[in-house]
Amino acid sequence: MTLYIDPPTWPGHGRMWSHLVSDVSFEELHAFAASIGAPPRAFERDHYDIPSDRYADAVAGGAVEVGSKELLRRLTDAGLRRPKSRPVS
Questions:
Q1: What is a single Pfam family found in this protein's UniProt entry (predicted)?
Q2: Looking at the whole model, is its pTM more than 0.85?
């Protein structure tokens, strides 16, 4: 099981955010997110938004730290990328 997280560099709602993804399945992603206490509402199409104050929890739980471009590449290569322009099926 490998999950990936990028640095908390994405601003929103007065906080900085990271993206948490799996390169295996959404089931793996949901299970990991639940294990670190990420609420289901934090899931957005193909990733979880993780606030900067929870970043260390994700890494301690086993998420691998990668840059944003690497995270996107792994998500796309796994066939799990769901851009807003493509309907979720």
A1: DUF4031
A2: yes
